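Our preliminary data section would be incomplete without showing what the modeling component actually yields. Below, a chain of 322 amino acids is followed by its predicted structure, encoded as tokens that our downstream tools consume directly.
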Amino acid sequence: MALEDAKNQVDHGFTREDLCGLSNENTFGGALSFLRRRYTKDLTGVDIAVTGVPFDQAVTNRPGTRLGPRAIREASSLQSPDAPYGWPFDVLSECAIVDYGDLAFDYADIPQFPAALTRHIRGILDAGVASVTLGGDHYISFPILKAYAEKYGPMSLIQVDAHTDTWADDNMDRVDHGTMFYKAVKMGLVDPARSVQIGIRTHNEDTLGVNIIDAATVHEIGPVETAKRARAIVGEHPVYLTFDIDGLDPAFAPGTGTPVWGGLSSAQAARLLRELAGINIKGGDIVEVSPPFDTTGATAIAGAHVATELCCLLGWRIRNES
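Predicted structure:
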């Protein structure tokens, strides 16, 4: 490679001029923006903003997901610079995607965190841009959903998870990653009849009317039929898709705080997400990647792929609406 060509291959996270296009940087060098997209707070002309929320003070078991956004960004550099495999379009070339950086918040002032995150996402949505959020523990979906419900009304929720996270909690100020969807339903942020939780394998007596396709059912009917049922539930309603990495079996994603055996495989999850193409998705997140327990990096790699698929789902919808 000529010296001048080499100079053009360095730090696309800072030097990229065009928001669209592929990146052929060395995987072992350069700025670790998500998929080598440009780091920027300027949302002019942007379709999708990827943002990190390094928060893990709502966990009930093992902490460490505050390091998730950094690990997911690093793992994203391992993905092929070509169009994501299996999609009939190149989201990186057809959609303007940026890395919006992380939410800044005072880690020692937890009561202010939810409102700070809602404002952060509201700013993205007000610019006419969709968000893909890298967590962080799963509580972050609750403040994010507040911003989405402000813009779109009660959302359809597609949730891939081992846990329903709808355990009763009438104290709306508690910060807990196991009760936030109970609050989201009770506050009217989520329409339970038009929502579906996929991969569940823990017991909850009251699921608040949310449709459940548990892990055993996914294994029985397969990801294609699972996606078909999920699409029928959400219809054309605005969708927020949240993917808890513990929706995968610990064999595929050991680096998480509350691992539960019997979950989805990476292959099942990949096919499931591809088969959801065309849903009226408005945004999404990938949460609960905990690098301290991710001894091989496999969990962060899975998280990076999920985030890329979220971009593809958003891009497919944007592409077909334009």
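The CA atoms of residues 121 and 144 lie 6 Å apart. The two ends are 39 Å apart (CA to CA). Preliminary results of this kind motivate Aim 1 of the renewal.
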